[in-house]
Each structure stands twice: as structure tokens, then as C-alpha cells.
Write a structure and sequence with these properties.
Elements (H helix, E strand, L loop, with lengths): L10 H9 L2 H8 L2 E3 L4 E3 L1 E9 L2 E8 L5 E6 L3
Antiparallel strand pairs: 1-2, 3-4, 4-5
């Protein structure tokens, strides 16, 4: 899987993301809290970054298009 598959991922984030099994990645994408909708949702249009040792998926709520972040501890 080349980096072109994830153009909005920082290189360090991509290295961590591809180590997570595909089925787990799908669950992480589909289980993001939206503070506006006040329930779990799917993250869309996301990018990946590493901050403070954690992998962050930063994107939009699939329902309201508001900003959401999925933190993957120490990934």
C-alpha cells in the first residue's frame, strides 16, 4: 500500500495507521464521538497526524459535517 492511498496522512501517521489491522481501522473510523450530534458517528474526509505520541484522525462528522477527532493512544 503506497502513500498515495492516504495523501492526507503525515508519513509518521501513515506508518502507524497501516500497522493496525484493516478490520480494526474500520471500527475506529466508524466509532467517533461527535460533540454536536452527541453520539457516535463515522469520521469522513480525515487526515492523520501524530501528536504527543498518539495517532490522531482529524476530519468531519458524517452527519453534521462538524469537526471530529479520533485519538488512537500510542498507536
Amino acid at each position: 500500500m503506497g502513500i498515495e492511498s492516504f495523501p492526507d496522512f503525515a508519513e509518521s501517521a501513515l506508518r502507524r495507521w497501516v500497522l493496525i489491522p484493516a478490520s480494526t481501522r474500520q471500527r475506529l473510523i466508524s466509532n467517533v464521538w461527535c460533540g454536536h450530534c452527541r453520539h457516535g458517528t463515522t469520521i469522513t474526509d480525515f487526515r492523520g497526524i501524530v501528536e504527543n505520541g498518539n495517532l490522531l484522525l482529524v476530519g468531519k462528522c458524517a452527519e453534521c459535517q462538524g469537526a471530529v477527532v479520533r485519538v488512537i493512544d500510542g498507536a
